[in-house]
Amino acid sequence: MTTGLFFTQLLNGLQLGVLLFLLSAGLTLVFGIMNVVNLAHGSLYMMGAYFAAAGFNAFDGSFLAAALVAIPGTLLLGLAIERLVLSSLYRRDHLDQVLATFGLILFFNEVVRYVWGPSSVYMNVPSWLSGTVNLFGLPYPSYRFAIIAVGLAVGAGLYGVIHRTRVGMLIRAGASNPEMVSALGVNIKGLNTLVFGLGAALAGLAGLMAGPIVSVQAGMGEPILILTLVVIVTGGIGSIRGAFYGALIVGIVDTVGRAFLPGLLREFLDRSVAQAVGPAIASMLIYLLMATVLALKPQGLFPVRHG
Amino acid sequence: MAEPASRITTPRIFATVLLLALGAVPLIAQALGEPFWVTLFTRVLIFALAATGLNLVLGFGAMVSFGHAMYIGIGAYAVGILSFHGVDSGWWQLLAALGVGATVALAVGAICLRTSGMAFIMITLAFAQMLFFLAVSLRDYGGDDGMALKGRSLFGGLDLNNSTVLYYLAYAVLLAVLFAFGRLVNARFGMVLRGCRSNERRMASLGFPTLRYKLSAYVVSALVCVLAGMLMANLTRFVSPSYMAWTVSGELIVMTVLGGLGTLIGPVAGAAALLLVEEGLASLKLGVPWLDTLINQHWLALIGVFIVFVVLVLKQGLYGWLVAREARR
Asked: Which of A149, A164, A274, B212 is most buried when burial is the number of CB atoms within 10 A of its CB?
């Protein structure tokens, strides 16, 4: 195990982490403010990736076109879902929300199978990001580095909006006491729609950024949705800060664990045993992490401070 | 629920007809020369069993477990792994499945029940995923692809290779569990559990150790799903991680809600309705070729819309609607 390889894997973990952050930020805000569990968030990510691939291929490889199709497209789709399905579920219990959005997942998976066919769709890394960057003597793919940069920029931007602007103040107020905010004359319905749209656009952005490095196919939203759920529960439901740190922790633990745990186990276990249990434990690592966190701190690592 | 057992009500008639009809399926299939029906309806019975198990925590205890598919997986893998090592005796397999299932359910339940609401949904899902990936990494037992069983379980003189025998075994297990649950939810245990559903804090102040009751309910419901898993492995002669995919947990919830949460027969009706609608859509022939192909290939989209419709409109579920109508009279 060389230091260079370790840092590369650490950066890969960071890259998965910021991607997870883009998804969990929206999901955790929607949950924190509207008290809604939206499993279809993974479908929005999938649709974002498909929209991006469609834009990319229609405008012969323009990444800008992909972005201009993916982000507004996902935003509009998210708003449509909010109006048509979720808005009538705000006052219902979590079970109904889980079920309805589970139904939406099945629906969207079949829609993309119908429109784009059952096999994966590909989009390339834009040519101006296809090289590598040199990080302290370590070559790293520019595109992955760009994902990290975009994710961190979005994180900083969200922090600014939520902590420094009037809308952000209303969002925070809405998260801790929606009735009171509404009683003070704020249009809470508008606020809900705004937050949902923001979350959907972020999911679309995540889909766009992930498009060139994963295979874009039906059902691609589900594994990452489950990771996102792990992130927001580990970080503390409803907290942007929790989503940020949770996403980085989960991204890094998952990537680094998968890369090095099997080798590490071989150091002190029998080779055949290590071969068998190494990958198993590596893929279970984040769930073990989440279970440990919840067993010790049921509110998550960075719970929302009320009051 | 408290009405005398002798009164004849619409839900009772419906439940009796449903169970009698399920009991007659092999005879009808034989008379019509459609042996495939027996296999299809064995699946219905197995999922009805699993959904009934889930209903104990979901419907009577209001604990939204999004991970009950993992207990189906434990039951199936207990049969698969023991059969792989040459242990064909169904009794040993049963013992191992229930032992492992109870241990896992106790540990997982004890951790999960520290949380509630959204976090409970997610942590049960996470544990199911953990087991799913564990099964995927079991390369000796087929890993991702799963493995075919050498033979079905041997229970004394029962020949499970005969599909009618397997059907009636599943039917008998389902009836036994329904009978036991019918007693259980109206006993003190069930009353406390239903009390926790309405107001757990009040039950705790009344002096009930609510966590212990909820954990017991969780373990019992898990064990019923383990039984369903064992039957499933015997039906398909195959075990694979896909039995505990998170979508299976989702489908179990759909079946329970579709039939009627917190009713005894609801999950059976829900499982039958969902699986038969799926089967019907996948082989639907309307006589319009392009529409038929579209529906037969993309029927899951219609199921998705159907689920949203059930949640938005048919809130009480099919059987739950009958029960609620009866209660209004």
From this structure: A274
